[in-house]
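User: Assemble these into one structure.

Assistant: Restating your components, then the assembled model:
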Amino acid sequence: MIKYFLLLLVSASLIIYLGGFSFGEKKIKKEHVPEKIRLYLQREYKDAKKIKYYIESDEDTTFYEVELIQNKEKISLSFLKDGTLYEIEKKIQFKDLPLPTQSNIETYLSKSYSKYNITDVQFVNPHLKTEYELNVKTKSESGTKFYEMFFNAEGQLLHAEEKTINPIPTLF
Amino acid sequence: MILVCIMVTSGYVAAQNLEYCGIIPTLSQTGRISQRLNYNFFLSETLDLADRVIDGTYYPSKPLQLYIQPSIIYAYSPNLNFTASLTYNYQRSNPNVPYFKEWRTWEQVLYSHALSHGRMTHRLRYEQRFIKNEKTGEWPMTTRLRYQLGFNIPLQGLTLDAGEFYFNCYDEAYFTLTVPPGTVRSALYSENWAYAGIGYQTKNIGRIEVGPLLQFNVRDIEQDLRNLYLLQVAWITNFNFPVKQKTGS
């Protein structure tokens, strides 16, 4: 029986290895981050904890990304290769959005779906231009779906992507 | 863990218990079938690694249990999954008795929520066990309910990246609900598994996780226990933690 188990284990490992699991971005060490970014972080996020650095290439553009926690707040920063700040992402509450923005978003959602639930809101500012990223659970004739929706500062929809739902990890 | 403590500190330990030490290599592969449907293939083998003499009886080191567990997972939402499986199980309560064969169907609800920077999971599973009676050739049904409380957390930062470690633990209580006519249930609270391990996310071949797994089960109506002290070595692929996603502009 052990032989069968080992045989299955080896076969599975080959399949998985040849399948090539990989990651889209690469974690890097602090010393590999441009000095301009390190100085910015020292100045603006001096109390930050659990800092991680990544490098990611998106078509022709290389981004340095920094993930950190400051004042119990999860913040994600993107920088261009020359160290220019490109984007800040942080979680906020829907009620913290400007009232006209809230109203426009709610109008769009109630017109588009029979039911919806905003589960998560992030402030994002690519090119330092304010946007809001919402995770929304929707119900319509086509069933229940989960979306990542991007709205501009006025609450107009920029684009929406249906989310892929990963199974919750568990063993045995 | 609380359930284990209750079990250990109760009268059970005074009875005639069987104690084994071993290893439980496991393999878990999860993959996508469609937008919401996923499959999992789980395989484990429990190996008793030490020869021992208990109350004058010699128990040689031998395999104790083989699990082959394919399942279908319906991911209703990021926090709620439903799973069903047809599992084959080949086991014996100690190395001196023959194996018994079991087919098992089960249905499961799994709920997950954030806790600090980690995730908590609540798993409820209802099992229908069909264990072959070698004398009659029949497969009478036993039913069981299992509740597992789990927690996992990346140990380096908010998300798990390649080359980083994470912590995972769970405790699972087993409740035997019904037994076949003409047999006696050993106990309602019949089994408990407690585990805590450290995992490592590799770059290309998923996760490797190692930690102690303590299994207690009531083996007869006298409330005698079989205690298994195992080292769980798991190889897990597509064991997802929150993945950083780049926003569009």
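Residues 15-23 of chain A have pLDDT under 50 and may be disordered.
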